[in-house]
Amino acid sequence: MANILVVDDEPLIVKGLKFSLEQGGHIIDTSFDGNDALENIKSKDYDIILLDLMLPIIDGFEVCKKVRETSDVPIIILSAKGEDISKIKGLEIGADDYITKPFNIMELKARVNAILRRMEKSKKIVAQKHLGDITLNYLDRKVTRNSEEINLTSKEFDLLFLLMDNPNKVFSREALLEKVWKYEHFGDLRTVDVHIRKLREKIEDNSSNPVHIMTKWGEGYYFQFKKE
């Protein structure tokens, strides 16, 4: 069971999502504009936010940016905007996933459940992983570099966790999409590239010349670790 906030200005979509997700045992709150969504988020902790982009008063992009100032709650963007630029912008400002309307409700529920499974799994892990100057704490989902905390989104943390848990192992974009986002047959490989770039910007001294998250051209990405 999870607390989920559905934010959309289309009543029929909200009604359908609320009904479907409640059938899975989840507790659903709803907002029909960006301002109300932010008020809900201030007053309650949510496990997942389903966020439309085209909202009255405050649009979804701005809502996402404001949420990311204080929280790493997983955000799945729902939007009729299928253009690549909208997807990339949504991911860059902190969204964890993006699904374009009209969508298959079973696909959406699969993505929600995948996020919840990862969150539950992370609660059971208490150890820390320390590679070089980066320390990842599974229990409180915190990452530090040289003792300075790095603010990561939920998906950025999951991605870094997988790479650090398998140092020097190369993962293709397809493999990362399957293991981190938990879906094989749908999804945009550019989602992986955007998250890798954002991770580099946060943990590397120079994201253009990384020393931690490396690219093996034609194959994929890996976390470089050299034993001293």
TrEMBL record:
Q: Name one GO biological process term.
A: regulation of DNA-templated transcription
Which residue ranges does the record assign to the Response regulatory domain? 3-116
Q: Which Pfam families match?
A: Response_reg (PF00072), Trans_reg_C (PF00486)
Record bears the keyword Phosphoprotein: yes
Mention one GO molecular function.
phosphorelay response regulator activity
Keyword presence, Repeat: no
Keywords, comma-separated and alphabetical: DNA-binding, Phosphoprotein, Transcription, Transcription regulation, Two-component regulatory system
GO CC aspect terms: cytosol; protein-DNA complex
Q: What does this protein do?
A: May play the central regulatory role in sporulation. It may be an element of the effector pathway responsible for the activation of sporulation genes in response to nutritional stress. Spo0A may act in concert with spo0H (a sigma factor) to control the expression of some genes that are critical to the sporulation process.
Q: What is this protein called?
A: Stage 0 sporulation protein A homolog
Q: Which organism is it from?
A: Acetoanaerobium sticklandii (strain ATCC 12662 / DSM 519 / JCM 1433 / CCUG 9281 / NCIMB 10654 / HF) (Clostridium sticklandii)
* Biological classification of the source: Bacteria, Bacillati, Bacillota, Clostridia, Peptostreptococcales
